[in-house]
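Worked example 3 (structure in, sequence out).
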């Protein structure tokens, strides 16, 4: 686990990804039921791809795409900032490396 977390931290330091951790006590949120990918294209309208355990679905209805974008924006607003998220990831990696991780 330490190696996986260190890899995520390395990607964040290289600005390949922007980690934002959602605190465990943030409560329920609209996107907690499954993965949602919001896709934007230079030459086509945006889409949302929803993925669940046994299926996936593409949404192209502009009103629904707008709702998913708003839900994603609210989720990011509730998440820790990228710098704090990176620090938390690095701390967790160190804890796993030192055998101090919490189950």
């Amino acid at each position: 686990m330490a190696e996986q977390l260190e890899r995520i931290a390395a990607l964040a330091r290289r600005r390949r990804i922007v980690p934002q951790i959602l605190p465990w006590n943030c409560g329920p949120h609209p996107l907690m039921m499954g993965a949602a990918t919001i896709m934007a294209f230079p030459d086509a309208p945006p889409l949302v791809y929803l993925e669940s355990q046994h299926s996936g679905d593409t949404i192209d209805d502009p009103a629904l795409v707008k709702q998913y974008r708003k839900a994603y924006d609210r989720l990011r607003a509730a998440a820790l900032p990228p710098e704090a998220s990176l620090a938390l990831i690095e701390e967790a990696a160190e804890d796993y490396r030192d055998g101090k991780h919490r189950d």
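Notes: The mean pLDDT is 93. The chain has three helices and three strands.
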